[in-house]
Amino acid sequence: MKKTLRPAWVEIDTAALRNNIEILQKGLAPGSAICGIVKANAYGHGLKAVVKVMLSCGIDCFAVASISEALQVRTLAPEARIIMLGMIDRENFDLVLEEDITAGLCSAEFAKELSDYAADFGRKAEALAFIDTGMGRIGFQWDEPGLLDTLKDISELPGIRLAGLMSHFSSADEDTDEGRAYTNLQQERFETIRSGLTAMGVKLPICTLANSYPTVNRPSAHYRYCRPGIAIYGAYSHPLFRERGMLPTFSVKAKVMFIKDVRRGFYVSYGRKGQTEGPARIATLPVGYADGIPRAWGCGRGYVLFGGVKAPIIGRICMDQLMVDVTGIPGVETGSEAVLVGKSGDAYLDPAEIGESCGELEHGIMCGMSVRLPYIYL
């Protein structure tokens, strides 16, 4: 194993990442392609390494949430399309043009400002109109009066190249009648705007609607680009992805740094919230909430794995360390490897399980690990 500066680390399985991308690509509707979502440091997987894997899989379009992310991608993929998923600050219009970034439009006023800026340089800024079909986040409201005329006018601005439309499903992962009905409604709204503009002579070659779940099970929503995020990164907890053969990509591991044998009634960690119920063997791991382990995962709620065997976390998780009860688990000693996320023996500790227990998303669990932990790419 590659030497790390800490005895705790993240492992990224690039073969599993490639597997997931290829499975998704095989299921695309004709004419559709994957837009690689690499925001938030590629969901905590490392933007640089993930972009390289995606490029090797033929992905030539990426989506980011900030200009700084867009600049990172541009250094790695000089010819790729880079789509902003959020709003762009007006003071960064120069970077939109210099780095050929596809901007998102949410208002006619913003579109006019971007157009004026680009036209002053004899340029056109590529842009997508964000349509709020029911997410309630950003974008033109799909039913606002005169929207089709507004978008047609934007398409005729001298400094804008309106390439398409983008929207986002809010409930596509809800396998209920209500969830499916709302997803159907959002798609109908999106298609109403798209077809209306097409009928007015506006060409929209780059429309994108499908996030992870519709990429797998709703080909009618694929359009030019699908935007699977968590699906690429191995949302192993969802049966829809497991059934397709997608694999988890993300693991967190740490070495045992200290072991002590203690008596019954021994207190562990802050506030005396951990206490042994009998003679016990306690192992200390060099990882804590500053590394992205939710503090709420402590006090017996969570666990780590040693060779597939659960070792409960005892007491509160500290900033840089946590303690686990390894009583009765054979072979655990200083230097033994604990799995905090990922596969161990025949067991798998899913980030979704941690997130559900602590009131967080699995996405957030993975993203939070990248602050201090070193990364190893397999």
Distance between the ends: 9 Å
Number of helices: 12
Portion in helices: 25-40%
- CATH architecture of the largest domain, please? Alpha-Beta Barrel
What do these coordinates show?
This protein is of the alpha/beta class. The chain folds into two domains: 14-233, TIM Barrel (Alpha-Beta Barrel); 250-349, Lyase, Ornithine Decarboxylase, Chain A, domain 1 (Beta Barrel), CATH 2.40.37.10. The protein contains twelve helices and 21 strands. The strands form six sheets. Strands 3, 4, 5, 6, 7, 8 and 9 form a seven-stranded parallel sheet that branches. A five-stranded mixed sheet has the order 20-19-11-1-21. Strands 12-15-18 form a three-stranded antiparallel sheet, with no helix packed on it. The radius of gyration is 24 Å and the shape is elongated. The model has no long low-confidence stretch (mean pLDDT 91).
Q: What are the key terms here?
A:
378 residues, alpha/beta, TIM Barrel, Lyase, Ornithine Decarboxylase, Chain A, domain 1, 2 domains, 7-stranded parallel β-sheet, 5-stranded mixed β-sheet, 21 strands
